[in-house]
Amino acid sequence: MRYVQLCERFIIHEFPAAEIAVVGGSTARGDRTPSSDIDLLIVGDDLFADDATGLAATYGFEGEVFEVFAYTHDGYSEWARDGISQYRPVIVHMLLEGREVRGGEALAALRDRWRESLADGPIVGEHELATRRYAITDLLDDLRDAVDDLERHVIAWSLFEKLAELMLLVDGRWIGTGKYLPRRLRELSPTRADLLASPLLAGDVAAFAARVDEELSRAGGRLHAGFVR
What we know:
Order of helices and strands: HEHEEEHHEHHHHHH
Number of strands: 5
Structural class: alpha+beta
CATH class of the largest domain: Alpha Beta
Number of domains: 2
Helix content: 55-70%
Mean pLDDT: 95
Distance between the termini: 51 Å
Largest sheet: 5 strands, mixed
GO molecular function: nucleotidyltransferase activity
CATH architecture of the largest domain: 2-Layer Sandwich
Shape: elongated
Pfam family, one: NTP_transf_2
Organism: Labedella phragmitis
Low-confidence stretches: none
Domain Polymerase nucleotidyl transferase: 21-49
Protein name: Polymerase nucleotidyl transferase domain-containing protein
């Protein structure tokens, strides 16, 4: 409750015309860390003095750091559709999973509008999945051929990211960036996530490559010669 009240004071100070406001992230979940900021989604048609439809900005207020995502209604729809098309609907997750600060019926209506889109999961074409398999195949070969330790580690972590995304998309799950990618992977399967991550964290590149091969086969197999991008 303290953070909801703090968010309302911030909104009064910076975005008094806000119609809808939702606090998300670790603040909404109740698992903040010492360095956590406050993620705040704001929607309203009179937020901006000019013709802007959206703003992503960082503010300091009462000793806290606010990461603000502010949009007009049209701007929110545009950015939400863009996130869905990239399989990472961050602001839709914020809208649906965050805690209400302002909104009432208007917030409920906006949530109803986007809830089905999120629940349906990403719509990924076969060519998109094939392109991702092709990229993973290429990286996997690079990993096995690499002799420089730095190159091997860089390739391995890039491979983890791309494979985790493929695993999620094949299963009809949304992807994420940064800390949200392993979280989404664990939601998919704690066992598969651990089998993939453990050898990588232990520095066992050979075992990691073997596990990547297994997951790649599960997603359709290697793809290289003859593939048209």
